[in-house]
Amino acid sequence: MKKTKCMPVVALSLGMLLASCSQNLDVEGQQASGQGKLNVTLKPVGTELFVGTRAVQEQSYANTDEYTVVVVDKDGNDLITCKGSELFAQMPLTMPIGNFKVKAFYGTESAASRDFFYVYGEAQGIIKAEAEIPVAVTCTPTCGRISVNFDAEMAKFYSDYNVTFGGTKALGAKTISWQMADTEPWYVKLDSQGETISFDIAVTTKDEYINGDNKEKTTTKSGTFSLARNKAYRMNIKPVYTETGSGELNFTVTIDESTIDKEYDIEVPVDWIQ
Fold it and tell me: Considering only CA atoms, which of 149, 100, 158, 102 is closest in space to residue 127?
């Protein structure tokens, strides 16, 4: 296979090469077996769910000019690697006939981050002689977004409170935390089928709300809930104080979608709030 590095405005029998891109194309084989055309479009989906934070410029993920696009042949060889802006300027691409796959991605992938996330998509098809094949690649975040909202009443009853998350495949034994003053969401890498994440809510009760003997000042309550890629989750935590000596802490896990809203109420031992 002849490996050709793209140069500005260089013509080959298979068509114009892409400036600033790299191509590995079997020119002789292509001439013998025929050519076809490939027209690629990228469609980011779900990044609009992630708008509204300071740490990550999430709207930049909608700009497909900055995506990296890789065209792969039937044997898994990378034929073209290019920035979206450079690729789109040369559409349609002249390609050898046969099976192909187009991969597109943007961002940095991490088990969990507050500074970035990763968007990926792929599509495949068959190039036919003398035909132009359109392929649309849908790119979605490989993570779910988690945020926590502590109700203002928390400060009345507790001197400190936080949530620790863990248990996903990417995190392994590591955990991430949300402290009482935090505001920026976590982007948590997830399996394509979705995963269950664990949480521990730790609260430190103010002295004036600790009654009776053997009451713990700091208490932790654990649980789990399901996460999926390309969805934003907000955990709302609100205390419920009763004067009868029993206490209950309710919290909701809200999936920030227009059609889905799930709530989970957890009964908390009486020594959470006395």
Answer: 100
SS3 76: coil
Residue 29 phi, psi (nearest 5): -65, -35
Question: What domains does the chain contain, in order, with CATH numbers?
Answer: 3-141 (no CATH), 143-255 (2.60.40)
Residues 60-107 have pLDDT tens digits of: 788 899 999 999 988 888 988 999 999 888 889 888 889 999 999 999
Residues 6+ apart with CB under 8 A from 23: 4, 5, 6, 17, 79, 80
**Distance from C-alpha of 272 to C-alpha of 219, rounded to nearest angstrom:** 7
CB atoms within 10 A of CB 19: 14
**Which residues, in sequence order, are bridge partners of residue 163?**
178, 201
pLDDT in tens, 182-215: 999 999 999 999 999 999 988 888 877 776 544 5
Tell me whether residue 241 is exposed, middle or buried, using C-beta atoms within 10 angstroms of its C-beta: 0 to 12, 13 to 18, 19 or more. Answer: middle
What burial letters (b/e) apply to 138-158, b meaning 16+ CB within 10 Å?
ebbbbbbbbbbbbeeebeebb
* Cβ–Cβ < 8 Å for 91, 113: no
Q: What is the DSSP string of 246-264?
A: --EEEEEEEE-SSS-----
